[in-house]
Amino acid sequence: MNVITDNLGMIGQGLVTTLTISIIGFACALVVGTVIAIFRVSPIPPLRALGAVWVTVACNIPTLCLMILAAFAAPRAGVPLSLFAAAVTAIVFSASGFVCETVRSGINSVSKGQIEAARALGMPFGLIIGTVVLPQALARTIQPLVNIFISCLIGSSLAAAIGVPELTNVTQQLNLRYAQAVITFLTSGLTYLAIAFLATKLGGLLERRIAGREARA
Fold first, then answer.
1. How many CA atoms lie within 13 A of 37 on its CB side?
2. pLDDT-based confidence at 217, cuts 50/70/90?
3. CA-CA distance, 177 to 18, in Å (whole number)?
4. Tens of pLDDT, residues 90-136
5. Closest by CA position to 188, among listed 142, 140, 156, 215
6. Contact between residue 140 and residue 108 where contact means Cβ atoms under 8 Å apart
7. Measured at the alpha carbon of residue 188, what is the angle toward residues 185 and 190, in degrees to the nearest 5?
8. Which residues contact 21 (CB under 8 A, 6 or more apart)?
9. Reported pTM
């Protein structure tokens, strides 16, 4: 355990970097994925086609490949990105495809009667989506979105491959220094597990609160 206790500062910094990548990546993916989901249900064919292509590409290229391309190919194309930014960009693009499909399933679960009633009142498509459909769609997809956050958390460990000093990268450095793979990777794995468990519990709590509010309404 001395390997862990003597390097708590280093491990803590790696954990902060992991959480930063995960939270920023998920938050941006939530925004981008929701926009793409709106594209996919839009009455405008080019937007629907763009949404379909986005999801196909985002969901079928490994996140590690995206990170390597963002870190090393993008600068050659004139788009300089730090290693941290490359990791976040890859997670945002990859997760946005899954967010899109999750939100789209939530949109499709909204009663068509509500949408028709909004149309009858003369509300435009954008206002219907923003005020009637999206709030219900997001409320109904909390747990799937939490699962996507957990995927972002796990995916952030791939940033170790491009040299970002997040938790897995720090674990690898400690293992190389002390040759204590079991204790270092066990600690790292349990940390990821604890964060995922906490996220699941918070998601469940939020879901129950929303359900209770809707029941009272």
1. 26
2. low
3. 21
4. 999 999 999 999 999 999 888 888 888 888 888 888 888 888 888 88
5. 156
6. no
7. 110
8. 84, 87, 88, 91, 152, 156, 159, 164, 166
9. 0.91
